[in-house]
Write a sequence for this structure.
């Protein structure tokens, strides 16, 4: 299973699903029988593929988040004083930015 899903790929899947849903809405007004069933089947397949890609993206984000959290935890345990200094610096920067507003 590949976890390399780009924003562009996910965006294209959303656009395709939206286009199929729009086609389904238009078809319900003009078509009946086989035409409607064909458009509905295409929309359902597109939505299934979109759901699958969204689940894959969610898994990939979860894996990356856990890896980042583990790396951060390891760094903080190896160099606690440096971590404190970085946190203090970030806090100071945020404080300065908030005070300017």
């Amino acid at each position: 299973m590949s976890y390399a899903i780009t924003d562009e790929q996910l965006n294209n899947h959303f656009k395709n699903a939206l286009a199929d849903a729009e086609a389904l809405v238009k078809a319900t007004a003009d078509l009946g029988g086989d035409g409607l069933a064909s458009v509905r089947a295409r929309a359902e397949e597109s939505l299934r593929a979109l759901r699958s890609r969204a689940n894959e993206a969610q898994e990939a984000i979860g894996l990356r988040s856990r890896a980042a959290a583990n790396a951060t935890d390891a760094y903080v345990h190896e160099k606690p004083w440096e971590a404190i200094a970085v946190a203090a610096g970030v806090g100071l920067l945020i404080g300065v930015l908030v005070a300017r507003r």
